[in-house]
């Protein structure tokens, strides 16, 4: 059977106007799903109907943070700075570029175990694998061929219903290594909030910490949510503020402020000089849809193949086809798990070595670099 690959266009700033048509019918549909759910409930295994699904897997969303960009290669820029402070400032800029617009009431598919996503954009090669289904854990490895950079994510999330909103806390490790400089940058992930009352919205919120043990430099950034309460304190929609400082002394070097969907500025606290370090219009607008460069090399576990029928149904608004496709994927997953339990076999990821201590997960890629992918972002 011929492989059927369906790739949806990444959601970018230019698509937001089209998404702002949220109707009362959509809101009512969303609220009806939660009417029998008690506040505090874990929504990890909660299933949405196709009408409320984005035409992509969560695995693809993670990958898009890395390979879906327009304009400057901000990840590669992290390794080009002559001084440690310049490299950390570039790391802050790159991190901000990974914050992407969210669509209220819409969510990606829950990846099945063993699902993979492999895409390249220029010198950036990305490979993600779903290493656990319950709980849902994703491992992501990305390498930058030219600048000798290594990115490792091991992420798992916990969505909880809070009554007036859904809070998604993302846990795990995110590490970027500048191998030429022998520097490691450790960072966390902000929370995702989907609010129903008193106003609808979907936004990132919380503290971001980026630190480098070797240089003893650190950045702390605060994302202010677009909530009802924040509107009383000024123009906080998608605003970001924080500082870059020396971890050992607390000496502040830069002040960071702006809006991650517009521009972000760094102020040198010694000289007073202002520098625009990020422009969203140059990085996350007009994003391109990846294309298949070599169909024969696309893995059968690739997200774009696993969910092809579902995505095609959603993109064509053929909800019956989408429902049937989703039912097929989920039932195939359950049958595979039943067979595995019956045979006493443990799941072994294909691309990562995995360790678990209680609720904490960690993973190490089996290969030192990610190869060029058969799916690429067109130039």
TrEMBL record:
PROSITE patterns: OSBP. Keywords: Lipid transport, Lipid-binding, Transport. One of its GO terms (molecular function) is sterol binding. GO terms for cellular component: cytosol; membrane. GO terms for biological process: lipid transport. InterPro entries: OSBP_sf (IPR037239), Oxysterol-bd (IPR000648), Oxysterol-bd_CS (IPR018494). May be involved in the transport of sterols. Belongs to the OSBP family. This is Oxysterol-binding protein. It comes from Arabis nemorensis. The lineage of its organism: Eukaryota, Viridiplantae, Streptophyta, Embryophyta, Tracheophyta.
């Amino acid at each position: 059977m011929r492989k059927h690959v369906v790739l949806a266009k990444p959601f970018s700033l230019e698509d937001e106007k089209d998404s702002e048509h949220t109707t009362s019918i959509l809101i009512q549909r969303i609220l009806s799903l939660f009417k029998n759910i008690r506040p505090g409930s874990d929504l990890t295994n909660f299933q949405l109907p196709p009408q409320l699904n984005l035409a992509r897997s969560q695995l693809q969303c993670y990958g898009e943070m890395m390979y879906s960009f327009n304009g400057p290669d901000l990840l590669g820029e992290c390794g080009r700075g002559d001084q440690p402070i310049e490299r950390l400032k570039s790391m802050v800029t790159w991190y901000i570029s990974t914050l992407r617009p969210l669509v209220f009431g819409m969510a990606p598919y829950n990846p099945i175990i063993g699902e993979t996503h492999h895409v390249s954009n220029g010198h950036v090669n990305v490979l993600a694998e779903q290493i656990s289904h319950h709980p849902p854990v994703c491992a992501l490895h990305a390498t930058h061929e030219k600048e000798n950079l290594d990115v490792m994510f091991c992420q798992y999330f916990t969505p909880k219903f809070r009554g007036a909103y859904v809070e998604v806390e993302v846990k795990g490790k995110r590490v970027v290594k500048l191998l030429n400089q022998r520097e490691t940058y450790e960072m966390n992930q902000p929370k995702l909030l989907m609010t129903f009352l008193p106003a609808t919205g979907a936004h990132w919120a919380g503290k971001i910490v980026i630190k480098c043990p070797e240089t003893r430099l650190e950045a702390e950034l605060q994302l202010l949510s677009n909530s009802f309460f924040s509107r009383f304190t000024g123009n906080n929609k998608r605003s970001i503020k924080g500082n870059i400082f020396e971890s050992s002394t607390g000496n502040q070097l830069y002040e960071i402020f702006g809006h991650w969907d517009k521009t972000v500025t760094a102020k040198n606290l010694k000289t007073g000089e202002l520098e625009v370090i990020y422009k969203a219009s140059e990085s996350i607008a007009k994003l391109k849809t990846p294309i298949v460069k070599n169909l024969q090399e696309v893995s059968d576990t690739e997200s774009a193949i696993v969910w092809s029928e579902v995505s095609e149904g959603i993109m064509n608004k053929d909800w019956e086809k989408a429902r049937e496709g989703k039912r097929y994927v989920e039932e195939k997953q359950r049958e595979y798990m039943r067979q595995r339990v019956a045979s006493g076999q443990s799941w072994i990821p294909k691309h990562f070595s995995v360790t678990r201590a209680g609720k904490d997960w960690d993973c190490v890629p089996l290969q030192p670099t990610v190869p060029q992918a058969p799916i690429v972002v067109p130039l």
